[in-house]
Structures are given as C-alpha cells and as structure tokens.
Amino acid sequence: MVDAPTLLPEGRPDDRARLGYAMVATAATLFAVNGSVSKVVLDSGLSSLELAQLRAACAALGLLAFVVAFAPASLRVGRRELLFLAAFGIVGVALVQWLYFVAIHNLPVGVALLIEFTAPLFVALFARFVYREHIRRRIWVAVVLCIAGLAVVVEIWAGVAFSTTGVTAALAGALGLTAYLLMAERERRHRDPVSLSFYGFLFAAALWAVVQSLWRFPWRCSTTPSRSRAPSPSTSPPSGRSSRSSS
Length: 247
Fold this sequence. Notes:
- Helix content is 70%, strand content 0%.
- The N terminus and C terminus are likely disordered.
- It has a domain of 169 residues.
- It is globular.
- The protein starts with 12 loop residues before the first helix and ends with a helix.
- It contains ten helices and no strands.
- By secondary structure, it is mostly helical.
C-alpha cells in the first residue's frame, strides 16, 4: 500500500482503480500528442536543449501554482530528501526529456518511442536481479506484448535509416526513464505525485538555467522561417517588360 498523501478524494477501491485507468489513458494520449508537437517545434528551429528548458520551466511554474493553491503543506522538504529530489529532477526529468527530444529530432517519433519504452523491461530486470523480487509471469508477457505492439505500429520490418545520434539518445533516455520510474516508486511512499512532479521539474529547470541562462533563450526563433519565405507570384513586382507593354 502507498503511505503518501494524496490530492485525490478518498473512495472505494473500484472507483480509484477506474480513475487510475482513466489517468493512464489520458496520459498516453497526451504523450502521443506531445511527440508530434515536439517534432514540429524542433523542426522550426528550436534546439532540443531549449525545448527541454522551456518545458521544465513552464511545468514547474504551473505545478507550483497548483500545489500552493490546493496543498501548500506538501512543499515542505527535509535536507536529506532535498538531495534525492535534486537527483530525481536532474536524472529522471531533465536528462530524460532532453534525450527524448534529441532522439525524436534525429529519428521518426515511433522508432524513438520503441527504443525509449524498453524502460519497463529494464525496470523488471532491475527488480528481479537487484531487488531479488519475484516478477509474475504476466508482467513479462505484458512487457513483451508492449514492445511487440510498438514494433508493429512503427513497422520496424520495413527498414528505417537509423541515426547513430538518435539511437544513442533513445537508449540513454530509456535508461534515464528506468531511473525515473524506480526513483518515483521509492519516493511515492513519502510524497504525493503532484509535489514530486513539481520538485522534479524545478530542479530540471534549475539545471538548464545553469547550462543556458534564461536571458539567452531565443524567444524570437519562431519568426526566423518567415524571413526566408519566397514571395508568392501574386505579390511579386511586375517586370520592366510587362510595365512597358501596359503603357
């Protein structure tokens, strides 16, 4: 059982299970949309680091407003826990998101997700051989089916020209996602998921602020492509020959 406080109302186990399934489905949908939108943003000229920095900063501000409004007491943190939250934010949030953006910038989104979502397999292996936990057979079956399903969706047998940078980033992202899942599983016994997410994004934003100062962020990068756009035929100035003929 989980001992952490929760921001959700108490209810019957069946009701909470249905709510959990609904949250998983919603999160999966948003994650799918996120991949396509992030690909478009990266192709528009924003770098992977800049997109990760922007996402972490905005998420930290939004989660802070939510926590302050509904559960300000959950912001309390001890010194020992603060070090763990810093590691969680840097490894589990900042690096995972940056590596994910590098991967989808160099690979098709489906292929990048196929590689990165091998993380549940690494979690099962870690639990089996490090924690010495018994992993039920249906867990292994579920992991294999998930990976096989992703392979079918992206039609991996059709052949894809892989980028070494993209594949390396996706594999590193899978290991980082493994660390994220294991660290979140440990910390959820002491902290609710919203404040945990806030501290994760807070330390991620702090890391990227050190790597690249906010005042150096290219806020006007979205206007760059429009400058190189060629004029349309309808707006092009008339040639000298046509002007003379009209006169």
